[in-house]
Amino acid sequence: MKTSEVIYKGELSTTAVHLKSKQEIITDAPIDNNGKGEAFSPTDLLATSLGCCMLTVMGIVAKRHTINMDGTKVEILKVMADSPRRVSEIHIDIFFPKNHYSQKEKELLERTALACPVAKSLHPDIKQKNRFHF
Q1: What are 38-77's pLDDT values in tens digits?
Q2: Is domain 42-133 in CATH 1.10.10.60, yes or no?
Q3: Whole-model pTM?
Q4: Which end of the chain is flanked by fewer CB atoms within 10 Å, N or C?
């Protein structure tokens, strides 16, 4: 089964539909690339996917080990390069709630986040700068 369908709506905007759930994501070109910047750009989604993936796999491991990480937040900064225009860096800051994580739990969560499928799928030229705040 196909994962998604994307329709060009005009004016540099698209609508992506997750075929199983029918959930939609709208994209718009960023202001610095002829767009209005009224929604996620495709490169914003790339960077955001890294943060979502890290949270998801950490959540799987946390559940397995009965570690409460509810409320954990990821802040993402995407850095663009020119010639060619591409994502050159993704900065990820992960803020955990003020639980009393053991050193072993912290290391487990960090290792898990860094090994997420999106992190391992990105081209090695894209610098991933990760900081964990416990």
Answers
A1: 999 999 999 999 999 999 999 999 999 999 999 999 999 9
A2: no
A3: 0.95
A4: N
